[in-house]
Design brief:
6 helices; rod-shaped; 61% helix; alpha+beta; 185 residues; five-stranded antiparallel β-sheet
Length: 185
């Protein structure tokens, strides 16, 4: 391969993977062209792309991008990326790999530029779940503070209500006692 063509391929890989931090590395072999096209179209509808890469060039590009990927470079490599999060991407790829288990093998996953096991990528929360957890954690101290303030305040309010009711009863009982004539002695 000439240096010019190699440089063009490196540039194309950099452009394709710029901004991508989550991906799954696959080995796809023996899949016929019609099935391969159908798989790619179905994934494209879900915002997921596939690209077969040359291992040496992709390793170089990923190294320049700061990715730490070591396990995925044996044999043919297809990179899948896209979707809302690494969890969504991994779940789609798992479904695809189960459907075509003879032809598609998952090698590894990359989450935020760091290589992780595919099983770990499947258990990671989706973007919506992660945001929900963060909001829940942020709201937790405020909820605890509100309940702590409501507890004593509710107790004091209950005592004040009881005292005011007693005072009203005493005030109502006093005029009634004055209205009844006393018996002569």
């Amino acid at each position: 391969m000439s240096k010019v063509i190699k440089q063009m391929q490196l540039t194309a890989l950099k452009n394709n993977f710029s901004g991508v931090r989550d991906m799954v590395m696959l080995s796809v072999s023996g899949l016929d062209a019609i099935t391969d096209n159908k798989v790619r179209l179905d994934l494209r509808k879900k915002g997921i792309r596939l690209q077969v890469v040359k291992n040496s060039l992709c390793r170089k590009v990923f190294g320049e991008m700061g990715f730490s990927v070591e396990k995925a470079w044996g044999g043919t490599t297809t990179v899948a990326w896209g979707g809302n999060s690494i969890a969504d991407l991994s779940k789609e790829i798992e479904t695809l790999a189960k459907k075509h288990e003879k032809f598609i093998k998952v090698k590894s996953a990359v989450a935020d530029g760091q290589e992780i096991g595919f099983a770990e990528a499947l258990t990671m929360p989706t973007l919506a779940q992660a945001l929900g957890q963060v909001v829940g954690l942020a709201m937790s101290p405020a909820a605890r503070l509100a309940s702590a303030l409501n507890g004593p305040a509710g107790y004091v309010a209950g005592q004040l209500k009881t005292l005011s009711e007693r005072a009203e009863e005493a005030a109502a009982a006093a005029p009634a006692a004055e209205a009844t004539p006393s018996a002569p002695a």
